[in-house]
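retry 2 of 3: previous attempt timed out while embedding beta-D-glucopyranose. Reduced batch size to 1 and resubmitted. Inputs unchanged:
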Amino acid sequence: MPAEGSTGFSGPQYPGRITSSVIIACCVASSGGLIFGYDIGISGGVTSMDSFLSKFFPSVDQLEEQGTSSSQYCKFDSQLLTLFTSSLYLAALVSSSVAATVTRKYGRKCSMFLGGLTFLVGAVINGVASDVLMLILGRVLLGIGVGFTNQSVPLYLSEMAPAKHRGTLNIGFQLMVTIGILIANLINYGTAQITEGWGWRLSLGLAAVPALIITIGSLLLPETPNSLVERGKNDQAKRILVKIRGVADVHPEYEEIVAACDEARAIKHSWSNILKSKYRPQLIISSLIPLFQQLTGINVIMFYAPVVLKTIGFGINASLLTAVITGIINVGATVVSILLVDRAGRRPLFLWGGIGMFLCQVAVGALIYAQFGVSGAGTVIKKLAAPVLFFICVYVAAFACSWGPLGWLVPSEIFPLEIRSAGQGITVSMNMLSTFAIGQTFLSMLCYMKFGLFYFFAVWVVIMTLFILFFVPETKNVPIEEMMLVWSNHWFWNRYIADEDIIGNRYSNYGT
Ligand code: BGC
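retry 2 succeeded.
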């Protein structure tokens, strides 16, 4: 029963090809991922710069310089320092539910624009910050921006793309996230060399560049046909559909969107409706996938790679450089997932990625144990650094082929129109909440759980891989407004789908 290798989907495929206008629109929209990625990459590097620490977090700086911490594992354990990184995620958590309403009522473009603009203001405040308060205020604005763009961009991409290429085009978002992280890592590597101590200002202030790209880009984009129909602009929707599909006859797909929209209109309150039994599969999957994505432990590497590597004995430059290397691997492996996602499907990538991450976490935990033991008092054994780095790189590659892109793709493609925007809001909130929790607790967890932390994440990877195996059906090639058929065909989720959800409505023609 859990054999879900193929979609089992017997519904329609609509005419159309992948056109240059859809590619351009998706590339521009994906740039929304740049701001998210830039921030992920920049915070880790900045929080390991001495000039930044001594200005805003003098206690951490002293602890580190005097080497007064009794354990290597606890060198950087400061709640205020982690709050700097994770405050953004709290703000994004709250703003993504507001974004859900804006996206539904005023369109996907509007949310992207607002997100870009708020992020821009936050970047400027951070670049000129003179105290911790300004720093945190700036980060809250960045967070609001990320909440808006992460809510609207994946949804925009999934709606614009033809079903057969939805995976590829949607992962454009994650590709931009990884490019943002890499650029940030490179910038940090450069600004760390500025001896006058203002390098961190440049790192934080330059976030304005990706913010400008998505702010201006969003003004130039076409709106999605689904959102236009949702807001009663049917003629415009048809014109855009003809343009992006590259065929004159878009009637079947247009009719499908209109039908989905009529159903959506009958539902007034998407937030309360999402709790109905027939949406249970989507609700559970779209809440658990972002939670699991964070429980892979990826942001331990993304936020704290320089700090972790410094902890295990790399010099500051070596650790920033290593962050650059993992950044390059992250981008490269995301490209691999783009090539595979619509051919192999989502499930094989999830499963293989999970196995790869598990093996690497076990290996890194063992190597760090060998180096520092349980007390953390050991000294650095240089020859262990290379294998640690090797396994970290393979781990990042496994994540970037699987949970990285799919953690955003799958939730954005499984909701029916009537609850899509609210559903995506839940996904972003869940992702941000879990990122916040891990960002906020990681340095303390490292201090208390020591090398065991890597085993903690490894156990979660086993749990999430089993979850995919049994509960997440294949969604490749299924048109977005036809997704209900996937649940009704699934060995477990079909119990939530009543006959009247399928028979008697528009799905009944397609041999379920
Ligand atoms: C995740 C981020 C992570 C990034 C790494 C994204 O999909 O949501 O939390 O830092 O991938 O590439």
